[in-house]
Amino acid sequence: MRNTTEFKEIFKMPLAKVSAVYTQLSGNPHAGKVEMVEFLADNVIKGRNDLNTMLIAISNADTSTVPQGKPDNATAEVANRAHDTALSTLGEVKKLETAMQSATMRINNTIVTLNDELSSIRNTVQAINSHDIDLKVTQQISDALAPFLKVVADQGAQAVVAQAVSVSVQGRKSAQDLFGININDRQGNPLMFDVYNDQSAPAIDPNFIWNDTIIRHLYLSQQTGENVWFGGEKGTGKTQTVEQFCALTGRAFTRINFHKYSTQSEYIGDLGADQGTTSFKPGAFLMGFTTPGAVILLDEVSMCPPGELAPLNGLLEPNSKVNIGGQVWRRAPGVLVVGADNTLTNGDDSGRYGSTNQMNSALADRFARVIKFEHMSEDDEVKAVVRHTGCKPDLAKEIVTVVRVARTKVTTGDLVDAPSIRSVIAFVRALSILPIAQAWETAIVNRQPVESAIALEGIKVTHLNVTKINSLI
Fold first, then answer.
1. Do residues 63 and 85 touch, judged by C-beta distance below 8 A?
2. Looking at the whole model, is its pTM more than 0.70?
3. Per the CB 3.0–4.6 Å rule, which of 141, 349, 385, 442 could disulfide with 396?
4. What is the architecture, at CATH level 2, of domain 173-373?
5. What is the pLDDT of residues 79-130, one digit of tens each?
6. For residues 465 and 456, what is the distance between their CA atoms, to the nearest angstrom?
7. Domain regions of the chain by residue span
8. Coil/strand/helix, residue 419
C-alpha cells in the first residue's frame, strides 16, 4: 500500500462515497478500500486530478445506487452521477475564484476612490493635519479589509494582494526619533515621518551618518509624493541614504540597477508563458509601484538608452494610472521614486562616468528636485570612520585629512577620481594587518587610473605620517 499520510482525508471518507468515485474512474466496482484509496492517490500524484477536487467529488458523490454485488447497468449510472457532481463542484470553485478576483478589484478601486477623496479634503480643509487624516483613513481601510484578508489566507489565493493590502502606516515618528537629528518646519513644528510595517524593509545600519538637508528633501517628498533626483560623486551615500530611509521607516526598498543594455521589459515587465497561457508579467518597477509605502530607486538611470526609459514618463506623473499589458497600474499610497546617478540629469562633461547619457527633458522634468550629494564634512567623515572601524578618533582624523587632500587634486586635474568614504574605511581596516604602504596601495591607489598614480604617490610621501599612524593603530 502506498504511504497514505498525505491522502488521509480520502481514507476518512465513507466507503460508499469513495467506491462511487473509484468506480467512475476505474470502471471496476469491486475493490477493497485500501486499493481504492491507492488508485485515487495515484490519480492525484500523476496529475490527472488535484487533491481538493478529488475530495469535493467524493464528498458529493451519490451513493444511493452503489452496487453491492456483481456490476450491472447501475454502475454506469453511479459513475455518470459522480462525474456530473465533480464537474458541478469544479464550476463552483471557478465561480469562487472569479468572485474573489472581482472583490479584490473592487477593493483596489475603493482604495483609489478614498485616496482621491482624501486629496480633495486636504485642499478644502487646510486647518486639519493631512497626515492625521491619512493615518485614520488607512487604519479604517486596514480594519475593514481584515475579514477579506482572513478569507484570502484561508483559501491560499491572491497572496500578493493580501500582502500589499496589509502594508499600512502604523504611526508617525519625528526626525529626532528616527534619524537622531532635531529638525523643525518654518512654524517650529517637528518633521514627522510615516512609519510602515512592511516586513521586507532593509536592515538598519546604526553607523549611518544622516544629513539634515537630505532629511528635509525626503520629508518634502513624503508630503507631496514628488519624485526626486540624487546626483553627485560616487561614494557620497546616495544609494545608502534611500536604503536606510526605508529601513528606519519600515518601507519596502526596490532598487533597479540600469546599464547600457537595459530594456523596458526588464524593469517594467513583459508577456510570459504560465501553465500553457500567455499573460503579462510585471517587472520590479511595477511590483514596487503597487506596494504601499515602497521606495523605488532608479540607480544609474542615465546609463540606460533613453528610448528604453519612455514608459517612466507616464508612471512618474502625480496620481498616475497607466495601462500596461492590458491592465491599469496605479501608484499605491505613499510610494516614492528616487533617481540616483553620478550626473545631475544633464550628462557627464568630465569623462569620468563613461556611457552615461543626457536625460530626456520630459523624463528629467518628472523629478521635482535635483539634489547634489557631496562628500561629508570632515567631522562627519571622522565620525563615520570611527563607527565603522572602531579605530581611535585621532587615527580616523589623520587618515581623513590625507584623503581630503587627495580629493582636492581632482579639481586640479592631477587625480581622476576622488577616494570615497568606502575607500577610507577599507584603508583603516587594512592597517590592523597590512603595512601602511601596502594598505594605501590596495585600498586607495590600485582602484585609480594609472595617470593618478603619480599624484597619489606624492600624497603618500608628503602627507602620510607613518610614525604618527603607527602610534595610533
1. no
2. no
3. 385
4. 3-Layer(aba) Sandwich (3.40)
5. 455 545 545 655 565 666 666 767 777 777 777 777 777 777 766 655 555 5
6. 14
7. 5-96, 173-373, 378-472
8. coil
